[in-house]
Amino acid sequence: MTTALPREADPAEITAQHAQLTRTWGTGQSLFERLATVDHKIVARRYVITAFVFFVLAGVLALLMRIQLAQPDSHLIDPDRYNQLFTMHGTTMMFLFAVPIMEAIAVYLVPLMCGTRNISFPRLNAFSYWVFLFGGVMIWIAFLMNAGPETGWFSYVPLAGPEYSPGKRTDFWAQMVTFTEVAALAVAVELIATILKQRAPGMTLARMPLFLWAMLVTSFMVIIAMPAVMLASSFLIADRLIGTHFFNPVEGGDALLWQHLFWFFGHPEVYIIFLPALGMVSSIVITFARRTIFAYTLMVLALVTTGLLAFGLWVHHMFATGLPHLGSSFYTAASMMIAIPSGMQIFAWIATLWDGKPRFMTPLLFVIGFIVIFVLGGLTGVMLASVPLDLQLHDTYFVVAHFHYVLIGGAVFPLFAAFYYWFPKFTGRKLSERLGRWNFWLFFIGFNVTFFPMHILGLAGMPRRVYTYADGLGWESLNLLSTLGALMIGASVLLFIVNAARSLKQGEPAGDNPWGASTLEWATSSPPPPYNFMHIPVVTGREALWQPEPRQVLEGLSPAHREVLCTSALAAVPDIRQHSAEPSIWPFWTAIATAIWFIASIFDARAVLWGSLPVAVCLIAWMWPTPPRVLQQRTAP
Amino acid sequence: MSGRKHICAALVVLLAGCSGQQAALDAAGDQAATIGDLWTLMLWVCGFMYLLVLIFLAHAIWRARHALDAEPLTHGSGSRAEHPLRMALGGWVGLIVVGLFVLSLATFFIDRSLAQARTDDALKIKVTAAQWWWKVEYEGMAPDQRVVTANELRLPVGQPALLELHAEDVIHSLWIPNLGGKEDLIPGRINSLLLTPRREGEYRGQCAEFCGLQHAKMALDATVMNPDAFTRWRQQQLTPAPAPSTPEQIRGHEIFMSGPCAACHQIAGTPASGQTGPNLTHLASRRTIAAGARPYSFEDLRDWLRDPQSVKPGNHMPVVQLSDSDLNALTAYLDSLK
């Protein structure tokens, strides 16, 4: 392999090379090829669209709840249905939207930002999507058949246990957790391997874009946090289906064990959602401020610090459970400390804008909205970290306000910024800027109208998760106001969908790098070809496309084989050429077999055994060594 | 109400600082007042930090107007502003650390002071939560001095009350915002909550931890009384239920004792001694029925007895089919249990 300047383009040669690479990496139009594809971009596109559909569905549930709460003593929705609504809203938003969509965007962008041809473990990636899809569809079918879970998205036992939540509802919930966690763990492994081993030559750790850093930290967090909740949900389903007593105090179990296990996952989960968003914000700030990020090293350290601290503060969800207060002080301190890396990052973004030459286009508007909203949510988070104050605010609408400021402000605003920013890369066309501004202002105003009053409602005594409230407690006006705001948010999201649908057909063609951005995904066409890059780019500085020297590429990967370049983990020195897996239908069948395994075990405990057989068969077929003959054919001219 | 009126009302609530009978900042007890002070401190410190962020952001936006057509700053570290910005970042982080230090210390000392409050002269009350009501027991010197009531908590002003918290089925959380913070009631565990009421009045508590279908209608009427009134109330609660006096009440009494009612409810001084449902000995002296689902009145009680499932769907009291005259008789009897 050699490093070279891009040769003088001979159009005929380029066309030939493009054709050959497309033959090697492309996905055909037949149903079989679509199901078997391992192209990270195609899988990611499905992932993003599916997760966005779940976002809209969960948003509809939120609107229904807001309509119910617009008036006191409302009888529109009965309590059982309402409890399913908020459980499905939280569950869908957390498990089927927030984490998956962040990972989906990473599955699309990380290989492009790394300058490689496909994600590592591409079949695992395809499998991950199918498992996620089947888990999400399962719980939504259950919900539509009036068997949706009704014990809240953190399903506290004993309420969610066999005695107080009979029927299959919570079983569906617990298995949905298993589905989505398997999917998330798979993606986390792929992203770590891709980021550490497939970066373009020259992209040392110190030159890695902050989005890659954010995804690296996030993926490690997924690997550490998710097993806790899988354990918890397995205990729960075992208690429910085969009569174990993990959470039954009468038989020596402990109701609080669930809370410890759940929040040991549940709190890092928030940062698993939030850190990728920070990476997106950094990308967008750099591009639109047209300045390298201020204090890069500190930004990286802030991400890592947040990732570490996130595991030391789960108890702040449990201050009211009667744990010793002196011990809780530790968690107060750890929770408050999160403000230090977060505050540093906020400063760095504003400083970058302050010293840069910002262009206030829609992505940057959403980023500014993010700063305004998220900082407020962070500050109420500091308040909630204080044990005595938390005892007043915990489980009230104040908390509802807080986590929507943090999650919508901290993740959904950056996500919309990301949609506007990367839509041209995904589709080749820009979203409408005019509709984008309406989208932003409706969302920003609607959001604050919806959620700011909830702070006051919480202080005025309104607990969360109530399907109605009595007249005369002084909560009526603010609830009505909040519902009006929610309708504005709904209109804003609708506007976004209209914008996306219209721009797909009529949007302004984007070109390779419409924003003049600096990261490698902008160094290829929009949308990128199946093989991502004709030549692997060589990176000479932190902002790869802004370097003054002429851009170099690396030659030597076979255009006839699915080959990716592996580089060393720290310095990104070319290491080996690695075969990248061929398309295969078996990840799809394995996912089907896994779905049968998980769902059947809800109805028949023995399915845990017999259900594993088809999974094993599918896995063997999946892992079967590719016959050399196929490779021979591929190398033929 | 029209939308505009609602918005005006919302502003009034904002300005009035959340007063009411279930409001955390309208303190009527030591614990709520102390936490209220902590809230004020938090609000000032956090508000100041928020303001700084907004000013910096606004300045960055304002400053940007001049730079629209400039070339990208591809080597930010070469910028003239780099050094001052680094100094400012150092100052900013220092400020955050100082702010957090103040807030952590305040939190710690307030938490300690609340935990170390004297409890030797405290009134001891056992509260047991069940789906979806509260059983309240005042311990006495002897078993016959024990007062058992439901869905109401009466406290003498000025005396600390130590609540021992139990749960019958799932996790609940006891929260009377005007008096203090909340504490969970967890099956298999015993928690405690100390409240020191300082202002007489009628307050309202509510279950704060989601506990199933009727979590929304699980309220607790809290009344802070002057000590004499409290003693009188306690004495009165110790008396057995008055015997029915009118023919209608007598018939209601018979319906109660011979029907399914007596299997779940206790009325002291009668054969009814069920323990599953709330004690009804002095039902008619309470402010609300069915854990705050309705205010107490003859008509509301009759509605409740006619069809508890429409007043509070899913609650554990079954519908008992009664003719209208039986229903009136039963209501008349229960209404006599002052």
Automatic annotation (TrEMBL), chain A:
Reactions it catalyzes: 4 Fe(II)-[cytochrome c] + O2 + 8 H(+)(in) = 4 Fe(III)-[cytochrome c] + 2 H2O + 4 H(+)(out)
Cytochrome oxidase subunit I profile domain ranges (all copies): 25-540
Gene3D superfamilies (UniProt xref): Cytochrome c oxidase-like, subunit I domain (1.20.210.10)
Top-level taxon of the source organism: Bacteria
InterPro entries associated with the record: Cyt_c_oxase-like_su1_dom (IPR023616), Cyt_c_oxase-like_su1_sf (IPR036927), Cyt_C_Oxase_1 (IPR000883), Cyt_c_Oxase_su1_BS (IPR023615), Cyt_c_oxidase_su1_bac (IPR014241)
Top class in the EC scheme: translocase
TM spans (from-to): 47-69, 89-114, 126-145, 172-196, 208-238, 270-289, 296-317, 329-352, 364-385, 397-423, 435-458, 478-498, 585-603, 609-625
EC number: 7.1.1.9
Pfam families per record: COX1
Localization of this protein: Cell membrane; Membrane
Function text: Cytochrome c oxidase is the component of the respiratory chain that catalyzes the reduction of oxygen to water. Subunits 1-3 form the functional core of the enzyme complex. CO I is the catalytic subunit of the enzyme. Electrons originating in cytochrome c are transferred via the copper A center of subunit 2 and heme A of subunit 1 to the bimetallic center formed by heme A3 and copper B.
Protein family: Belongs to the heme-copper respiratory oxidase family.
Protein name (database record): Cytochrome c oxidase subunit 1
Organism: Steroidobacter gossypii
From TrEMBL, chain B:
Entry EC no(s): 7.1.1.9
Entry-linked Gene3D superfamilies: 1.10.287.90, Cupredoxins - blue copper proteins
Residue ranges constituting the Cytochrome c domain according to the UniProt record: 247-338
Domain Cytochrome oxidase subunit II copper A binding: residue ranges: 120-236
Domain of life where this protein originates: Bacteria
Catalytic activity: 4 Fe(II)-[cytochrome c] + O2 + 8 H(+)(in) = 4 Fe(III)-[cytochrome c] + 2 H2O + 4 H(+)(out)
Transmembrane segments: 39-62, 89-110
InterPro entries: CcO_II (IPR045187), CcO_II-like_C (IPR002429), Copper_CuA (IPR001505), Cupredoxin (IPR008972), CuRO_CcO_Caa3_II (IPR034236), Cyt_c-like_dom (IPR009056), Cyt_c-like_dom_sf (IPR036909), Cyt_c_oxidase_su2 (IPR014222)
Membrane topology: Multi-pass membrane protein
Range of residues in the leader sequence: 1-23
Predominant location: membrane
Compartments where located: Membrane
Top EC category: translocase
Keywords noted in UniProt: Copper, Electron transport, Heme, Iron, Membrane, Metal-binding, Respiratory chain, Signal, Translocase, Transmembrane, Transmembrane helix, Transport
Function: Subunits I and II form the functional core of the enzyme complex. Electrons originating in cytochrome c are transferred via heme a and Cu(A) to the binuclear center formed by heme a3 and Cu(B).
PANTHER family associated with the record: CYTOCHROME C OXIDASE SUBUNIT 2, CYTOCHROME C OXIDASE, SUBUNIT II
Family: Belongs to the cytochrome c oxidase subunit 2 family.
Identification of the protein by name: cytochrome-c oxidase
Source organism (scientific name): Steroidobacter gossypii
